[in-house]
Amino acid sequence: CTSGITEMLLQTQNGFIDILPALPDEWKNGNISGLKTYGGFEVSINWTGNKAKEVMIKSTLGGNCRLRVPNQMQLTGNIKFEKAQGKNPNLFFDTPEIKTPLISKEAKLNPTEIKNEFIYDFPTEPGKIYKLKMK
Q1: What pLDDT digit, counting tens, does each position of 4-43 carry?
Q2: Which of 12, 49, 79, 84 has the smallest count of CB within 10 Å of its CB?
C-alpha cells in the first residue's frame, strides 16, 4: 500500500522524475518529503489545488536533473531551467529504445486524455538543495 501511494506522488521512469503523476482529485492539498529517486536525488513536494506549489530536490551525486511537473515552475537562485530535449544526459536515467507497437487495424482504441506537463532540465552539484516554486 505504501509503495502504491508513493507511486501516485512520485515516479522515476522514462528518463525523468515525475512529480504528482497520479494524484487523486480528492487529494487537492498535501505534502510529502524524503522520497529517493534514481540518480541520488531526494525529493520533497508541497501541493495545493492539485498542482505542485513547491518542490525541494537535494542532489547527492550531482548531474542533470530532468523533472516533469503538472504545472509551470520556476527555479529559485541563479540556475536556469531549460526545456528538456532529447535523451537525458544523466546515465542513471538511461532508457531503452522502444520499438513502435503493432496495432491491429481492427482494434478499437479508447481515447486517452493527456494532462498538461512541463519537462525541465537543470544541472545539479553534489550536496546542494534546489527549490522550485509554482509560477
Answers
A1: 999 999 999 889 999 999 999 999 999 999 999 999 999 9
A2: 49
DSSP string computed for 25-45: TT--SEEEEEEEETTTEEEEE
| Cα–Cα distance measured from residue 60 to residue 126, given in angstroms and rounded to the nearest whole number | 5
pTM for the model: 0.86
Contact 35, 44 (CB under 8 A): yes
How many CB atoms neighbour CB 131 within 10 A? 14
Q: 51: helix, coil or strand?
A: strand
CA 125 vs. chain centroid, Å, equals: 18
In terms of Cβ atoms closer than 10 Å to its own Cβ (0-12, 13-18, 19+), residue 96 is exposed
- Helices (H) and strands (E) in the chain — how many of each? 1, 10
